[in-house]
Amino acid sequence: MGLMGGSPLTGPGPEGIQPGPDGGFPPLPETGGLTNAVDWVVGWARSNSLWPLVFGTSCCAIEMMATGASHNDWARFGLEVARASPRQADLIILAGTIVEKMGSRLITLYEQMPGPKYVIAMGACTISGGPFYYDSYSVVKGADRLIPVDVYVPGCPPRPEALLYGVMKLQELIKKGAWRNSLIPRPINHAPFKDEMSETAREWEAKEKLKQEGMKEAQEKFKAENPDFKGVVIKRVAAPKFDEVARVVRPARGLPPAEILALLKTFFPTLGVYNLPEPDAAKLAALGPEYVLDLTVPKEDYLPLISLLRDDARFKLDFLIELTAVDWKDRFEVIVHLLSTEKGHKVFLRCALPHDAHPELPSLTDLFSAANWHEREAWDFFGIRFTGHPDLRRLFLDDDFPGHPLRKDFEDPSRVVKRPY
Ligand code: SF4
After folding, report:
1. Cβ(394)–Cβ(376) below 8 Å
2. Which CATH number is correct for 48-180, 3.40.50.150, 3.40.50.300, 3.40.50.12280, 3.30.1130.10?
3. Pocket of ligand 1, candidates 125, 128, 139: which has the most ligand atoms within 8 Å of its Cβ, to mutate?
C-alpha cells in the first residue's frame, strides 16, 4: 500500500465513496490523499477489530452466546475478544431485559468504555422493553433511554444470523463515519411512553372498515351471480387422542394434617384452616394424601405459633421454604411455608393484615435466618414492615423507588404503561 505519496491505496473503500480518477481514494478539498488513506485504514481497522463487552441479562443472551460459539463464530467478523471489562472494549452488545436497578450500572459501564465506542441493542426487550412494555414498573422501555444505541437487532430473541447482520451494519457505519468523522453517537430517546397497541388497533379498525365498504358492491354482485355458493368449508384434522397417564400420588410423610391441627388447637384455639369452615379430621382426610395443612393465623399468634412449630419435638418444622405476601385489596396476607426436614411434613400459614399504609408483623429472623431476604422482599414489594428485622432495606428496587409496586393500588404513569385490555 502506498500511504506515503506513492501509489494510492487501492481496494474496496468505504461504501458510498467514489474512487478517485486513478482508481484510488479521492483527496478531499481541505485534506490530502494521505489523510484520506489513513482515515480509511483507521475505519477499516476499527470496524474489523471490535472488542465486545457482553451485557447479557436474560434469554437473548443465549443467542448472543451462540453467536460467539463455534457454529456461528463471530470471530470471523473481527469480534474476537469478548471482554468482561469495559476498559478494554469498544462495543457493548445489550442482550436481554434491562431493569431500572441495572440502569445506572449500565451507564457506568458505557462511560468507562474508551471511545470511540458503539452499542448494539439486541432483542425486543432491549429495544423497547418488549413484552414488558406494558404493566411493568421495573423494565426500562428501551436501552436508548439510557445510552446511545447505534444498531437495533429486532426479534424475541433474534437468531445469531440477525446479530451477525447487526454487526455487519455497525461495521458499515464505522467505515462510513471514519471517512470524515467518528461515528456520532445517537441522541438519548426522551419520547413519552404511549399505548401503541390501542393506536394500532384503532388504525386497523379504520382500514378494515374502508376495505369492507370498498368490497361491498363486488360482494353483492358475486352473491347475485352465484346464489348457490356456500363459502369454503375448511376441514379440520381431528386432534389425536392420547391415553391418560395415571398420576402417581406420593405417600404422605410425617404427621397427618388432622393430627397437627388437633395438637395446635390445644395451644391456639382460634386457629382456622384456609377455605375449610369448621375443620375436623374427616374433612381434612377427604382432601387427599397430598393436602398440606393451610392454617389461618391471627396476628397475635403468628410469632408464638411459628416458634412452637419450629421448637416442639412433635413438629420440628426447621426449614423456612418461603415467606411471601399477597394483596387481596381488602387485606394483605403474609404467607409462610414450613417443612420438617426430619419428619417430612409441611405446614402452610396465612396471617391477614389490615389494608392500610403501614401493615406490620414481627420478624422471623430470630427463628430462621432465611427470613431475612424473604421479609426484605415483602417490604420492598408490599410495604409490610417486619418489626425486629435487623436490616429492613429494599431488596430488588432502588432505594428511592416511589412506593411498593405489588400493592394493587400502586400507580406510577412515569413508569407503567397500562395494558389496554
Ligand atoms: S426479547 Fe424475548 S428472548 Fe430477548 S430477552 Fe426479551 S423476552 Fe427474552
Report:
1. yes
2. 3.40.50.12280
3. 125
